[in-house]
Amino acid sequence: MTVFDDREAAYETGFVHEAELEFMAQASRNKHVAFWAAALMGQTAEQAVRYAKDIIRTDLEAPGHEVVVTKLKADLGDLATEEKIREKMAEFLAEARERARTGQLGTML
Predict the structure, then answer these.
(1) What is the pLDDT of residues 20-52, one digit of tens each?
(2) Which of 52, 57, 63, 95 has a CB 3.0–4.6 Å from the CB of 34, allowing a cystine?
(3) Helix, strand or coil for residue 54?
């Protein structure tokens, strides 16, 4: 391999790693926002875990945070505004990205 090939392989490896970390951070965001929403809805711990899995599944079936916002807004009704949902999602994503950056992301569920 040439130096160029080595650099290209390293770049691709880094890109894949960053994409994996972002995927995990978004799944972590979804889990945490689901637990937050479940608490607002008065769900039990068992129900909250099921709800978190449902939110994560929703994002996997139709990627993009808008489907998660729409589902949360529908489920929460008057318990939280769309603005508050977006605020919490941004907060949880920032925290998850920081945990991913420092190698402390952990498991999903």
Answers:
(1) 899 899 999 999 999 999 999 999 999 999 999
(2) 52
(3) helix
